[in-house]
Design brief:
- The chain is an alpha+beta fold.
- It folds into two domains: 311 residues, no CATH class; 129 residues, Immunoglobulins (Immunoglobulin-like), CATH 2.60.40.
- 40% of the residues lie in helices and 20% in strands.
- It contains 16 helices and 16 strands.
- The strands form five sheets. Strands 8, 9, 10, 12 and 14 form a five-stranded antiparallel sheet that branches. A four-stranded antiparallel sheet has the order 13-11-15-16, with no helix packed on it. A three-stranded antiparallel sheet has the order 3-4-5, with no helix packed on it.
- The chain is elongated and about 115 Å long.
Length: 473
Amino acid sequence: MSDFKAPTAWRIYRYYFFAFLTVLALVIPWIQVNDSYFFLLSFDKLKLHLAFVQFDMQELYLLPFLLMILFLGIFGMTVMGGRVFCGWVCPQTIFRVIYRDLIETKMLRLRKRIKNKQLEPDMSKFENKVKKTIAIIIWIALSLLASANLIWFFVPPEDFFEYLQNPMDHTILFGTVIFSALFLIYDIVFLQEDYCIYVCPYSRVQSVLYDDNTVMALYNTNRGGHIYDEHKEKQFTSQKDLQVNEPHAECTACESCVTVCPTHIDIRKGLQLECINCLECVDACTVVMGKLGKPSLVTWSSDYEIIDQKGKTKYFRPKILLYIALLVGLTVGMAVMGSKKEHMLLNINKENRLYSVKKMSDGRVRVDNAYEFLVQNTQNDTMKFFFEVILPKDMKGNVEIAKPKKEFTIVPGIKKKKIVVLRTYDMLANDARHDSVIPITIRVYALGHEDKIVVFRKSTFTYPRSDIIEEAK
């Protein structure tokens, strides 16, 4: 028994994963490829950066895909592994581990043991008051960093620090940072796990997503015995009393799984909304039962396998396969739509006046239509643009560009308004009763990049009634 060596605790794996996520969150906002970020939703410059590709706000059709992937991913994760998102990914949990386990316990020794999360420090001692003050000061600094890090996904870091030099000119931005930091201070230092239990709506959602094969931290009543009755009332407080009723019960009633729980629940009571699947109770029981030469009574498994003992957990069941199919479909759909990103943006608005008619000195009649082009260069380089007019294939005649006569230059990220006049000297229609609306296609392209940076827009050219043409002659 004395030679027992506990396996690496799930807690250690969580710490490594938390460190990875923390570094990732801090580093990603700084990485640029061709002046584009991996993810940046810039309200300042009205752009979305996704996978190092820039999209204008008019292309925000990708954002619903991202939100659906996020929520379906979390829901699918819950069906598969319970509140594993809460215990392994949620910022609330990561921040609490940093504050409670790292700052209060490891750095300042305010708490005596990481494995006892129920025992609060004795704050009547002056030494502990000083340590608590230092812990809060450290967390204030980290809260400001975390709040700024969040803002970096909406305002690039280099812009953020430039704005920081004149904070009064950016009161909304820095007000958001300060408000977020204050919330984190209150949440992590004072509200603590009560946020997970009473505030977070996810705990209520998870209850409708669970099924018999959902993997979670479970106490094996078949081996350990029934500490609680069917009404969730505690029946026994010692192993001796428990074994009087259930002679083969193995639970030692050491309460290690209880004292280590960050949300202050007893896993032996059964499924509880407060459980965040951090698996600290699994670690605690593994150590205790391991010293007795027995496997842990608390395991990361499912009711189907542990409680009902119907067989191995079914991971890839129809519900999970449906979530996978939806996520794959959404990802493919987003990739396809993202690949069709236009390399320039163009809006065409026709002027209120339908047309103008003028007789030329050579006897021809000129018909003009005026338009307003709003063009935006979404590339990173200044480029020159021009366009051409494409008539229907069966249309006889020609529509030429009267204005502008030459290409126009647009700098990156700037919308430029151009007044465009299209002109014809040909008789495009001969209708005595109505003006003729002729469909046309406008092809706008970047000079030197005609095959890549090009967009097509549908519009119309209005040709007057035949009596108006005759009158002009």
